[in-house]
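Hello again,

I reread your note about wanting to compare the complex against the isolated chains. To keep things tidy I'm splitting this into two emails, and this first one only covers the full assembly. Below are the input lines as submitted, including protein chains and any nucleic acid or small-molecule components. They are followed by the predicted structure of everything together. The single-chain runs will come separately.
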Amino acid sequence: MGSPFDINGGACVAMVGKDCVAIACDLRLGMQALTISNNFPKVFNYAPSTYLGLTGLATDVNTVSDLLRYKVNMYRLREERNIAPQTLANLVSSSLYEKRFGPFFVSPVLAGINETTGKPFICGFDSIGCIDFAKDFIVSGTASEQLFGTCEGLWEPDMEPEDLFETISQALLAAVDRDALSGWGAQVWIIEKDKVTQRLLKGRQD
Amino acid sequence: MTSLLGHPAGGEGIGYSFSQPTAAPVKQHGFYPYTDNGGSTLGITGSDFAILAGDTRSTSGYNINSRMVPKVFKIGGDDETGEGAHIVLSVVGFAADGNALKERLDAVVKMYKYQHGKPMSVSACAQRLSTILYQKRFFPYYVTAILSGLDEEGKGALYSYDPVGSYEREQCRAAGAAASLIMPFLDNQVNFKNQYIPGSGEGHALEQKKAEPLPQATVEQLVRDAFTSAVERHIEVGDHLQMMIITRDGIQEVFHPLKKD
Amino acid sequence: MDHFPGTWGRPRNDVYGAYDPTYLQTTGPKTHTSSPAVTGTSVIGVKFNGGVVLATDNLASYGSLARFTDVKRLRVFGDNAVVGFGGDVSDMQYIDRLLESIDIRENYSTHGNMLNAKNLHTYLAKVFYKRRSEFNPLWNHVLVAGFDVDGKPFLSSADLLGTTFSAPHLATGFGAHLAVPILRRRFPEEMPIEEITREEAVSALKDCLKVLFYRDARSIDKYSIAVITKEGIDLKEDEQIEGQSWAFAERIRGYGRQTN
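Full-complex prediction:
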């Protein structure tokens, strides 16, 4: 059997624009080459303008997303405020490192806008919580190589929300079409200061 | 007593601390006839031209062998410089096999010209290259080849291969270490995959943007963008970009610097 | 008491295991080199404004044993071409005989033009590639130095797989890790070779050999160095690495005289 990261397939990407961020994922869930579902979103919401994408082993995607929902809910009850993206990043990191020698097989991607500073924030993680702070984009999943190529080619600094949507969508769709384990439609979130737009993309169904 | 032949009887051996390792299994070291020299190549065709490009870095493992080892070759030229050639071949993978393949094909195309008194067509050369690769089906040339030139109508022609000779004519193709990074970018920017014409229909009934041959300047820029992107994210790609631009006036070879880190 | 004189003076079977006679077998399937036996370590080379310098040390190792300490690993071919050999020494001697026979044949031929270093490199690369394709490799990594057809300095590498590449400075084996960074710092690749003098090139190689002697356990401080110019080859085969500094050893436990 192959790597646990490649059994179910899936792709996720986050990008920074001008006062906005975007996060997108494909919708496939598979078992090796067999597609089980074409409605398996991998991006989860943890605060009004903070989203987390999880690719990798689907069971761990569910476990980690639920675990973080629990932890973020506890945070909100205790602090009586929403969690900031930077705080969530550290929470994700420490939660993953807790399982250093028996990790969750996930590669998280975080995107959000800090409510107090108004600054966009994205970052990525490896499965044991090493944070990758990036100024441009973060990719993960079985199509990560393809995503690196498309994002590096299409992304440019200071894009407006509409341009950012088009760029992240084209980058994701082009990438997953060259990956047998990802695709079957996509979901995109464009996060602005006080507004989040969610869009469902039709992709190739093969 | 030490026996003359064979091992001592079990349990009778003396207790030297270093007498243990003799039980270690005999290790076989095999000879592996291949290596990967990294790098990437890319070809795009237009209505009256074709461009084949590759980086010039040669690697073995994490070492850079040299920053100037071209992967794109003129085939069937009149002299060592390739002057007079009208077909271009790029090879990426195991460089020694790549060179051997290049020289085989070069000889074949030259012999064709001497025997038939006319240059070999690109389609004929493409078929021949497939045969050469398949002849070594059970000890393959470990390379991904791309062959390019102009077809009988003067249109850009490009053929891509796998190591054992499967081939196909295409509009564009990336090969080598960064193929997985470059190819989806090309799908999107050359064949306009996933691009729709705004206002051409309601919802999912939108009409797809048709792929049409691009102008030479656009293609050159796309090739350079594809490589600068690949260099950024792949350690085996870099140093220089070598581009062969094939038009009816001949083959123009240009080099551009890439990042050397 | 062991009453069998045939076993006297041999490693005891009960200690070292039975003697493995397989390598002496004359029957059975044809066997090929699957690993090198007696080996030479790095070869290093640099181009300069009038030619090329090539250097190796004079050691041939048998595994970790410094077996032969006076082996010449730079071989001259013709009037201005030198081959530096790394890897299996017996294969080096085979190739040397091969090159000698070519040299003699070429000298007796009527055309009068001699093979230059570039031709020699092409030939060697093809010999290596042919042998690797027969699964019977010549276990070497060589540098070829001299001049090309246009009389420009030439330096190129070929290895047991037939892989070839050329650069203003090259090194094989350990030298690729230790010598190349030193050479790249002294002579940046964008620096034209017209700006590199013979003296600079020679002193750079000497420094590289010293670093290799310090850190490559399969090296020795006796070396050969060849300077190839239009005037001919200046080959010195009995040199000694000079200016070694072992002052640091005094402070390292287990290295100098300190025992605890």
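For quick reference: The mean pLDDT of chain C is 92.

B.
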